[in-house]
Specification:
This protein has about 100 residues and is mostly beta strands. Helices cover about 5% and strands about 35% of the residues.
Amino acid sequence: MEAKKFFITETGKAEILSINTCPICGAARDNNLESWGFVSGCWNKAPLLCGHGFWITENFNPTDDAANDEWQESILILPEYIPELEALGYSEAEA
């Protein structure tokens, strides 16, 4: 079984790569576009319905041809919920 890891961001949030639901409770993102933040073709950010954090996608290769774009999904967990992540077996990844 693969180890469950997270990275600490510059703002103190825990980032879990390549997932699209809350790792704590399984909640989905808020699909109401009014709640989203975004820069077209670069990134999207939506709150998780549970309030534990945010779902984000980031384009690491923005191009004029969307077929060549390189998107990555992840979940950002707010700092106050990091102990809950750790209780579920997640640990901070080595830098």
